Amino acid sequence: MRKGRVIKIAIVALILATGAGALALARFTPSGGDFHGSPVPPLFGDAQLAAVHDPLKAAEARGHKVAKSWLDAHPVTSDEEFAAWAVQALGAPAGGKAPEKELAQLKALSAHRDAAGVTAATWLEAHGKKQPWKIFRKETEPFITATTYDATKQALKDALDLGATLQAAAKTRYARPSPYQADPSVNALNQAKFAGQTRQSYPSKHTVLAGAALALLTPLQPHRTEEYDWMADEIAFSRLYAGGHYLSDLTAGAFLGTLVGDYERRKAGLAG
Length: 272
What we know:
By secondary structure, the chain is mostly helical. It is built from twelve helices and two strands, in the order H-H-E-E-H-H-H-H-H-H-H-H-H-H.
């Protein structure tokens, strides 16, 4: 059988297993389903992702609005000035240290975990921080100028680095314990791994990085918004399913990440 035929069959099988959104990953896996050397498992379905989609999009929209207002008022700024403002703009979690309704949501998910979901959540935790966004960025190359591509590549690197720094600063400042520390019955997938450690969950690093990437990449290829959103939803839901974050941790991450992405986009001269 010809190699091209094998690849096509593998891609079709992956799509059938995980939904049409899996094509976003399959395009970059010529070995027939491996992603950075790791087989792509069936991921979460649309019905599950509905729990995070609208809250994330609302946080993203608020982030764009807040970022524009501040950046318009501060056309000449520094990373340090922006960082101080962004962490303050995030604010403390509205639900407090252990929001009861969100804790109940995590317990309900924990009670209905299955092997497939655990595999999906574990895979997304391992691969969902930076790798998908670098792949999506590479795919923009044929559609934009070389200058814009180089600027986007650097801006995404800077945004992911700055996002990682700011989420750590925000976690220290707002000190919300991870949900499984507030209530061990959440039975988080990584609970044993971090036993005895102090862990903060607000905001989610995964969604900070996703929010920053979306802010940078979506304007370049707006027709792929649904594809980018699907990946962000998969990553975010995995954190709920695993019991590592409250929903408000995820939306806080999307908000902070959007601020970072808009800042780096403007700094790189990509904002029109």
